[in-house]
Amino acid sequence: MTPEEIAAEDAAERLAEEVQRRRKKPKAPTGPGVRTALYRLRDAAGQLLYVGISEDPLRRWPEHAKDKPWWPEVTSFYQEWHDDRLHAQAAEAIAIRTERPLHNVAHNKRRPAA
To answer: Which pLDDT value is given to residue 31?
Structure first.
């Protein structure tokens, strides 16, 4: 394995461990007025793979892991918190349109229709 592959594997393991720790916590409240995160998922080279929103991103990511073929490429993440879901949705649309993540479909003109 190359040093980059080892680093990517280590980062993915740390992310998986954090997800497991958060899974055991009680579910946070949802709905209007609940803080919502805009998150960005990147690969080992820093390529932006996906932008999404969630009131609890560490609970959301295992759902991606189950059905997204690109999930194993994720090695890092960034969260940006907003006061409510409406503001997070607006920020998500802007981020997708301007940053062109590789695997987002909605708001992303870079992504061809399937």
So the answer is: 59
